[in-house]
Amino acid sequence: MADFIADDEILELAIARELDANRLYLAIAAKVKDLELREVLKELAAEELEHKAKLELEVMKSGRVVSPGDNADEFEGVSELSAGELDMSYKEMLLMAIKKEDTSFRLYVDLAGRVTDSDSKETLLAIAEEEMRHKLRFEYEYDRALKGN
């Protein structure tokens, strides 16, 4: 991972990841036939926006203004697959989501160790915990899918 100069850059990276996760989960939800899982995916997508809002608040505490499009594609390698590129099976989508949540968890723990502001550190660790809960939910759905066949 690149060396970051300021806490704000770390937070902006996290914001971009949350936007990507939101878009990805909405794209997967649009492809899922199971109505219950579709709602779960929509809820998780909404939670990713809540994470984004928490991170934006941390940026604003430093006196910076966060505008809506500031960080959507700012960092190389952050952008996830678009809805049109999700040509994969349901199980493959779940495995991708599991991997994404695990990566996000590990990233936020790492980023929390890099920020100097204690509030930002707490926010990143809290979001890391929520990402792990998302991963567990996707693992549960994957196990259900395996048993269904």
Detailed description of the structure:
The chain has 149 residues and is an all-alpha fold. The protein has a single domain (7-63, 75-148), classed as Ferritin, core subunit, four-helix bundle (Ferritin). Helices cover 72% and strands 0% of the residues. It has helices spanning 7-31, 35-61, 90-114, 118-148. α1 (7-31) runs antiparallel to α3 and α3 runs antiparallel to α4 (118-148). The radius of gyration is 16 Å and the shape is elongated. Residues 70-80 have low confidence and may be disordered.
Percent of sequence in beta strands:
under 5%
Radius of gyration (Å): 16 Å
What is the overall number of helices?
Answer: 4
CATH-level-2 architecture:
Up-down Bundle
Helical coverage, percent range: over 70%
Quaternary structure: single chain
On the 0-100 scale, what is the average pLDDT? 82
Task: Profile the largest sheet.
Answer: none
| Succession of helices and strands | HHHH
**What do we call the CATH homologous superfamily?**
Ferritin, core subunit, four-helix bundle
Instruction: Determine the CATH topology.
Output: Ferritin
Q: What is the number of E strands?
A: 0
What is the overall silhouette?
Answer: elongated
The CATH class label is: Mainly Alpha
Which structural category fits the helices and strands? mainly alpha
In total, the number of domains comes to 1
- Uncertain runs with pLDDT below 50, 5 residues or more? 70-80
What is the straight-line distance between the termini? 39 Å
